[in-house]
Design goal:
Layout (H helix, E strand, L loop, with lengths): L3 H25 L1 H59 L3 E6 L6 H9 L3 E4 L10 E5 L5 H4 L7 E4 L6 H24 L1
Helix pairs in contact: 2-5
């Protein structure tokens, strides 16, 4: 039978050999590993620097494009004011909005062409102007009304300049119809 001392000496020899192997492997391969790691690190730093520069360039380009868009928007608003200002300046438009719709953009648009905007309260009259109903569908009280006032349904707040232009075109057309009807009577 093999003694316990033999097993203990064998186990100690294995651990000593393992320690020597780790020590020799760590020191012998260290310069090669260090050089490879340095090369990889340098490549990663170069990629990071290129990404930072690209990011900076893209931010500058976005800022420049945003400035151009804002300038074009101002030009279009000026063109709208020139196109519709003579016909719509001083006219009165009442705005009623459903609880979940937002009419601030419409109010701003109407003010930009010189229209007087009045918030409409249910039960009031709008005979001296046009009622813009900002809602998904006409409210029941509006369809039951028997008055002669004209109204336009605005289902979606115009989110682009083309839609704003189309809304102003509808407002101008309806107001022209109202003026012609008043002149006939």
């Amino acid at each position: 039978m093999i003694s316990f001392r033999y097993h203990l000496i064998t186990l100690a020899a294995v651990f000593v050999a393992l320690g020597v192997g780790i020590l020799l492997g760590g020191t012998a391969g260290h310069p090669w590993f260090s050089e490879g790691a340095q090369e990889i690190l340098a490549k990663m730093e170069a990629k990071y620097d290129r990404a930072l520069k690209s990011n900076h360039d893209l931010k500058q380009q976005i800022n420049r494009l945003l400035q151009e868009v804002e300038q074009r928007n101002q030009e279009v608003v000026y063109m709208m004011a020139m196109r519709y200002g003579n016909d719509l300046a001083g006219k009165k438009v009442y705005v009623w909005q459903d609880t979940d719709k937002e009419a601030k953009e419409i109010t701003r648009l109407m003010h930009s062409v010189g229209i007087n905007v009045v918030t409409y309260e249910r039960g009031g009259t709008w005979e001296d102007g046009l009622l813009l109903v900002v809602a998904g569908q006409p409210p029941p009280w509006l369809e039951q009304r028997t008055g002669t006032g004209k109204w336009l349904l605005v289902e979606q707040v115009p989110d682009s300049l083309a839609k704003q232009w189309a809304l102003l075109e509808k407002v101008q057309q309806t107001m022209t119809e109202m003026r012609v009807a008043r002149e006939k009577s």
